Give the backbone structure.
Amino acid sequence: MMDIKKVVLAYSGGLDTSVIVKWLQDKYGCEVITYTADLGQNEDLEPIKEKALKVGATKAYIEDVREEFLKDYVMKAFKFGALYEGKYPLATALGRPLITKKMIEIAKKENADAIAHGSTGKGNDQVRFDVSAVALKPDIKVLAPVREWELKSRDEEIEYAKKHNIPVPVTKEKPYSIDRNIWGLSIEAGPLEDPFFEPPEDIYSLTVSPKEAPDEPEYITIDFEEGMPVAINSQRMGLVELVEKANEIAGRHGVGRIDMIENRLVGIKSREIYEAPAAVLLLEAKRSLDELILDRESLHLKDQLAQKYAELVYYGYWFSETREALDAFADVLNKRATGTVKVKLYKGTATAVARKSDYALYSKQLATYDPTDTFNHKYGEAFCYIWGLPLKVLGQIRK
Ligand code: ARG
């Protein structure tokens, strides 16, 4: 067995990670330090800290990292408009590398030889923790007790918890596995494992049902500067406040529900429900601005690379040079992404309906069919001749 003296554990305060504190101490005779980040999961961290110490941690770190999360992780993916498999705004996936980075910093400071997390052996999150950790500290050991322990069911875990004086939740657990942060909420498992089962209304907590949403549309404006949202309805605010506000506004119109069958990195298809009101709203607005300001080739290439970017994030390759290089690409294309977009929110939809920018490549003089048209129609003929030449030659030999 590995010789481990001190572990930094990613601690949520739930049953799994509380049992893990004890289990690590039992199995390795090691000291356990916990780390809990506030990524906007809407939970009080103080009680989590107390609980960590109560179940046996020697130290419990808590930290509000919402600003850093949005600025250094979420906004990078946002500048690309990256969505995994065209739908998932990557909230959970973007949080893992940040949590891992923080844990590695603590591991260095505390002279710990390992980090630990509560992920299972068949999900994506284990990959993101494990891979980020070795990228940042190649000699670190990564422990994932759930992958190896003998507790085969929730009942066995509860029994273990009771035996070791670990508080067991009294309310009946929801049958779902939920991960939440300021950029979105991920829901899986339980009855959702049947892909033909429609999610019941009560799994949603950030959005109202579109049926219950206001009967009148609401219009809002989003201002962007260099690709980043900076104001809602002309009111400037910091990123945390802005995203919270966007969640609230879009949520009350039922915007941001996503139901998908996605391909996990480990080869399993899984049914996922996401709620990401702010992400869906802001991505729609940003897309509309990009359409206005980017030239065709840049926009098309950005879209292709956005898919790659989403894959890298999803696959746990945050700390890769590939990702850094793609960020440099996106930064160039976001230099002129300054402008205002008006979005209409109505019954579950967020639709960009107006956009403007001092850097727009759109030219009314060129586009118009009215007499102010400055485009020289004569050139159309020569353009078509040359553009069609290869196909004309092919047509000749084919006939
Ligand atoms: N499928 C999503 C992802 O891989 C969400 C994972 C959510 N994790 C959870 N514990 N519910 O990013």
Remarks:
- The CA atoms of residues 288 and 352 lie 6 Å apart.
- The radius of gyration is 25 Å.
